[in-house]
Amino acid sequence: MAEQLGGLADDRALLGRTSTAERVSDILRSRIAEGFFPPGTRLSEDSIGGALGVSRNTLREAFRLLTHERLLVHELNRGVFVRVLTVEDVEDIYRTRRLVECAVVRGLGEPPYPLEGPARAVAEGRRAVREGDWKGLGTANIHFHRELVSLAGSARTDELMRSVFAELRLAFHVVDDPHRLHEPYLARNREILGALEAGDKGEAEKLLAVYLDDSLERVVEVYRRRVSAP
Fold it and tell me: What pTM, to 2 d.p., does this model score?
């Protein structure tokens, strides 16, 4: 916990003079997604509030926001914990991803499409592979799908999927085998990007749907073993 709090103290400058619960929740959401606070971790109000230099009320409001996003859970007389997803949660996350991501691709207008964001994410994934940074590859994969969603040009959809992708990272942290989990999908990201670059959104949607179905099967298989282990 000391290491996590040390890193959290570095984020204190991000709060500026107009510290708000929303900014605190943004910082904690990022730290949870990055694995600084793994699933099941109890979050200490005193320690985190001291590291960020915020009041107890501000921190509690940030906890409330993240609980609403299903990233944290409050347990009576025990405190606030980073949520541990169930297998059913993981399945529902992928169900939501399939509904939203495929609909975004299907709803694209006439090509060419603004693909700078997805292309950057693919390049980020290639760089992570070259460096052997498998967690970084997982982050790049999520960035790719986040950029796909952003093609809809909808702030509401972006906000919805920001929470969905953050929940997904909770599952990835439990699986804890980022190399095997993420490496097969870099090539598939490139295939989806290539279809969109060619202006074939129908093919891109087919590739994406199969991608998500395969990823769900793979993640659930490993996740079920991990959460069932003593």
Answer: 0.84
Q: Is 199 left (phi over 0), alpha (psi -120 to 50) or beta?
A: left
Note whether 12 and 24 are within 8 A (CB).
Answer: no
Q: Is the pLDDT of residue 30 over 70?
A: yes
Do you know the residue count of the chain?
A: 230
Question: Given this model, what pLDDT does residue 17 score?
Answer: 46
Strands annotated E in 36-116? 42-43, 72-75, 79-82
CB 190 within 8 A of CB 122: yes
**Other Cβ atoms closer than 10 A to 137:** 24
Mean pLDDT for 160-187 is 88
Arithmetic mean of pLDDT, 39-50:
93
Distance from C-alpha of 14 to C-alpha of 37, rounded to nearest angstrom: 19
Tell how strand 79-82 and strand 42-43 pair up: antiparallel
Query: Which residues on adjacent β-strands are paired with residue 75?
Result: 79
Beta bridge partners of 81: 42, 73
Pairwise CA distance, residues 52 & 11, whole Å? 7
How large a percentage of the chain has pLDDT more than 90? 71
